[in-house]
Amino acid sequence: MKHDINNVEDLMQILNDTNLTEINFESEDLKIALKRPKLVPVAPQQVEVLESSDEVKETKEYKEIKSYNIGKFSYHNKSGKAMIKVGDKIKEGQEIGYISTIGVNNPVTTPYAGTVKEILLEDGSLADYGKNLVLVELD
User: Fold this and answer.
1) Neighbours of 4 (CB within 10 A)
2) Which residues contact 22 (CB under 8 A, 6 or more apart)?
3) What pLDDT score was predicted for residue 7?
4) Phi-psi region of 94 (alpha: psi -120 to 50; beta: other; left: phi over 0)
5) Among candidates 125, 9, 129, which has minimal Cα distance to 74?
6) Which helix (H) or strand (E) segment is 10 a member of?
7) What is the C-alpha to C-alpha distance for residues 106 and 67, in angstroms, rounded to an integer?
C-alpha cells in the first residue's frame, strides 16, 4: 500500500509541475488516472466606486487565488495561528496556507500582491482544482 501512495504522490507532483491536465499510470495490480480541469485565464474583475462629494471614479481590481491541488485547505499554521486574515497586506509569492493531500501539505502561495478582501473557503474545507480560495484586491 505504501508503494501505491508514493505512486499517487509522484503522479500528483508531475501533474502539478507541468501543464498536463491528465496523467495515467497502470501496472499489473494498480491503475491510477488523475485529471484536472483546463485552466482558462479570466479577465480581472473591475469595480467602480463613486464618491458622492467629489464624484471621483476609482477602479479597484480583484483577483482570486485558486487551488491547484485536491485536498483540505487550511490557512492556519501548525500552531493554529492564522497565516492570513481579511485586511492583511500580502506579497507576491507569500505562503497563505496549504492543501493537505494524503497527509502531504502542499503550500498555497499567492501570485498577486494586494489586500485580502475575503477568504472564500472555510478552514479545513475540501479544495478542488480551480476552486477559488481567497479574494485579493490588487495594489
Assistant:
1) 12
2) 33, 34, 35, 36
3) 66
4) beta
5) 125
6) helix 2-17
7) 10
Q: Please choose, from the candidates 61, 114, 128, 106, the residue with its C-alpha nearest in 3D space to the C-alpha of residue 84.
A: 114
Give the amino acid at 38.
K
Residue 68: CB partners within 8 Å, gap ≥ 6? 16, 36, 129
What does the pLDDT look like over 84-113, one tens digit per residue? 999 999 999 999 999 999 889 999 999 999
HEC per residue, 77-93: CCCCCECCCCCCEECCC
Residue 52 pLDDT exceeds 70: no
* Residue for grid cell 463613486: 50
